[in-house]
UniProtKB/TrEMBL annotation:
Protein keywords: 4Fe-4S, Iron, Iron-sulfur, Metal-binding, Mitochondrion, S-adenosyl-L-methionine, Transferase
Start and end residues of each Radical SAM core domain: 161-382
Species the sequence originates in: Saccharomyces uvarum (Yeast)
Localisation: Mitochondrion
Protein's name in the database: Lipoyl synthase, mitochondrial
Stored InterPro entries: Aldolase_TIM (IPR013785), Elp3/MiaA/NifB-like_rSAM (IPR006638), LIAS_N (IPR031691), Lipoyl_synth (IPR003698), rSAM (IPR007197), rSAM_sf (IPR058240)
Region (Disordered): 25-71
Length: 411
């Protein structure tokens, strides 16, 4: 017992001597008793302990600036882990333990997920002078865009055009936090978001004037916490844009205002050019895809009321494919839309934002999207944008709508 304790003390003394020699760059005489370390195992243990102590000393001597950078990096990594990690429901159900992954495992899974994507869904990294200009202005004026918040795959194409008048930005008003929780959407959710910024209508109009855009889309998160659902705030923004940039055509993509059709009237009469409200999916899948407060029939009533209030308004909606819908259900949805005289419909592929969102049932092939475009035009829609990467504010559709509206204005 005594010999064992003495040997441990010798190992510790020898480790401290090694650590001091490494730190000071000297070769002092080994401590008394180190000659008792006459086997490789003891000396290896001592060297290992010295290495650990040396690393600890170097870390403790790190500069305050480096420590601050490391802390910020850890906080960012922690936030990212929370966003991509398990939800509260996962903890309640006991599924969380299998979802908490170390960074290397997460990177491996993300790489595998990317490999599974069909080639027609892969897009280049956004770049270009105009892209960075719009991104900078959005940040400077404290605006939110659905292009960024919803991780739209077309952001590089819409923001990166050389001709600013051809670029399109979809600005998200009333903050970046939604009061609803649809299973397909990556926008943040909260029951009590921050109050609307009273300067947002003015700042938005100023941004549109700077950019010189020919067409802009204004969208909002759902604000069920506000009495009017944000209708007056959105309408005021449209009026400000028309004052500062009268030639800019304005589309609004708004919520259902909890079915309050008086709010739809306010929006339809504020001077906008296109009234958009998304059905998102077919009737049978609506309860599984959208928040329970959003219903298929309620959305149809919103589009119908907008057209009734201002018959010259273009009405528009968007439908995601790949959620498990059938061809018959899509046809019926288009019939329902034509019954209320909806003018424009778009079809795009549902893309799963994170592992916390509903899974993709099918990656629909481009030829099938072409088929739905032909069907929509046959049924009398004024225009249909249909493709894997098409979103409700896809700029190719807006170019066509812009021409239609300009012809109407001349007449």
């Amino acid at each position: 017992m005594y010999k064992s304790s003495a040997r441990v003390l010798c190992v510790e003394r020898y480790a401290r001597w090694l650590s001091s020699s490494i730190r000071n760059g000297t070769s002092a005489t080994p401590p008394i008793g180190s000659n008792e370390l006459n086997n490789d195992s003891d000396r290896a243990n001592a060297r290992s302990a010295a290495d650990v102590e040396g690393v600890a000393n170097r870390l403790s001597a790190a500069s305050p600036a480096r420590k601050s950078r490391d802390n910020r990096r850890r906080i960012t990594e922690f936030k990212d882990a929370l966003n991509l990690g398990p939800s509260f429901a996962d903890f309640v159900s006991g599924k969380a333990s299998g979802m908490i992954l170390d960074p290397l495992e997460k990177a491996r899974q993300n790489t595998e997920e990317a490999k599974k994507l069909p080639r027609w869904l892969k897009v280049p990294i956004p770049k270009g002078t105009n892209y960075h200009k719009l991104k900078g202005d959005v940040k400077e004026l404290k605006l939110s865009t659905v292009c960024e918040e919803a991780r739209c795959p077309n952001i590089g194409e819409c923001w990166g055009g050389k001709d600013k008048s051809k670029a399109t930005a979809t600005i998200m008003l009333l903050g970046d936090t939604c009061t609803r929780g649809c299973r397909f959407c990556s926008v943040k959710t909260n029951r009590a978001p921050s109050k609307p910024d009273p300067m947002e209508p003015e700042n938005t109009a100023e941004a549109i004037k700077r950019w010189g855009l020919g067409y802009v889309v204004l969208t909002t998160v759902d604000r069920d916490d506000l009495i009017d659902g944000g209708a007056n705030h959105l309408a005021e923004t449209v009026r400000k844009i028309k004052q500062k940039a009268p030639k800019t055509l304005v589309e609004t993509l708004s919520g259902d205002f909890r079915g309050d059709l008086k709010m739809v009237d306010i929006m339809a009469q504020c001077g906008l050019d296109v009234y958009a409200h998304n059905l998102e999916t077919v009737e049978a899948l609506t309860p599984h895809v959208r928040d329970r407060r959003a219903t298929y029939r309620q959305s149809l009533s919103v589009l119908e009321r907008a057209k009734m209030t201002v018959p010259t308004l273009l009405t528009k909606t968007s439908i995601m494919l790949g959620l498990g819908e059938t061809d018959e259900q899509i046809i019926q949805t288009m019939r329902d839309l034509r019954d209320i005289e909806c003018d424009v419909v778009t079809f795009g592929q549902y893309m799963r934002p994170t592992k916390r969102h509903m899974k993709v049932v099918e990656y629909v092939r481009p030829e099938k999207f072409d088929y739905w475009k032909e069907k929509a035009l046959e049924m009398g829609f004024l225009y249909c944008a249909s493709g894997p990467l098409v979103r409700s504010s896809y700029k190719a559709g807006e170019a066509f709508i812009e021409n239609v509206l300009n012809k109407r204005n001349k007449n």
